[in-house]
């Protein structure tokens, strides 16, 4: 029997600079955001959600989107993603000349869609299709995230059929992938398995990406279930920061270092350097001036690298 389960490699998308920071009350400087992005690249990240082009009054933390883009390192091998909710945001993102991929968002319920982006759920699907088309027309790529795929903070349970139907519509725009987001962290592995398989069934060969928040401690189990169900791209944020300004009590994303530890130890390569992520966790703890949710970031990996052991024994 092979010691590799399901797959030998998974692609990680670093969402820390956007989803990780957007809900933080303390304004993080553009300088520190760029330092976080540079550290992520140094740790091996090749797809990074760098900012969002949204109303700065609604999300003050992202008001420096243009400045962040202007300061992005010139790295051809890195795909920079800008999150957008409407045509104006997409125009801004494309005008920076630094965004490689637009990330559109639609939401599975009307109440949350209205609060998040002043659209009905159906409108959010239409707009997301248009945003993907705008990216493609500009010679870029577009992908779509379906927010509240596993449950809504306002309407409660979300029917799986609703998410599948949205994905089927979105696939017509030919996005590079469609992400299922557990925005408020209510999903469980069995739900993830069912939904990933059902959505894959209607959008293949377009792949499914997953985006989990660890609000109720099911984040890592959900990542594992998604990979077992065929997912090969996973969102995560360094330190496990994150939340949604429009979703009450949503906690952080699954932490990049926790996911990387789990997968690498299981024989699934992520292309990321765990020690560099842990180092970045320590740095980010200082920047945020508080303990971060990530567990491996605090405890360290296992086994310890030879270099660390040598230093400790000296
Ligand atoms: Zn999120």
Strand residue percentage = 5-15%
Separation, N- and C-terminal Cα atoms:
41 Å
Per CATH, which architecture? Alpha-Beta Barrel
Tell me the CATH topology: TIM Barrel
Strand sequence of the main sheet, in spatial order? 1-8-7-6-5-4-3-2
Supply the helix-strand structural class.
Answer: alpha/beta
N-to-C SSE string, H for helix and E for strand: EHHEHEHEHHEHEHEHEHHHH
What's the number of helices?
13
Largest sheet data: 8 strands, parallel
- Oligomeric state of the chains present here: single chain
User: pLDDT under 50 segments (min length 5)?
Assistant: none
Overall residue-averaged pLDDT value: 95
Indicate the CATH class: Alpha Beta
How many domain modules? Answer: 1
Give the strand tally: 8
| Rg result | 18 Å
Characterize the structure shown.
This protein is α/β, with parallel strands linked by helices and about 325 residues long. It has one domain (about 10-314): Aldolase class I (TIM Barrel). The chain is built from 13 helices and eight strands. Helix 2 (about 30-40) packs antiparallel against helix 11 (about 275-290) and helix 7 (about 160-170) runs parallel beside helix 8 (about 190-205). The model has no long low-confidence stretch (mean pLDDT about 95).
